[in-house]
Amino acid sequence: MKGRVRWTGERQFIAESGSGHTVVIDGPPDHGGRNIGIRPMEMLLLGLGGCSNFDVINILEKARQQVESCEVFLDAERAETEPKVFTKIHLHFVVKGRELKEAHIKRAIDLSAEKYCSAAAMLRAGGVEITHDYELIASN
Which residues form the signal peptide (predicted)? Predict the structure, then answer.
């Protein structure tokens, strides 16, 4: 896996993934940024959410669950002092679909958290406490 991050001036950068996708990284105005892109720590947090949600959908599809939507809401706490690392992250999944079986949803989320999500494993190895919960929404 490769990537590139190029400085474009002030506190703005263009990040490009090895697969050719780009994202603007910027800082807040009080740190020299213009607030036109995502912050680096926000990107890290969203990477965790994307990694975990990817796993959950993959597992649920294999379990033949009729998922219509799956969102994960992330809430993170950071250390007060530099480096202001993440100390706690909570993932709240909202899964909507037809005839969803709660046991399958719970299992998918647990498997992602405990076995498959590389981002979660890396953050946990660094001492971040990661928790999760979920809610199911049945569609008609």
Answer: none
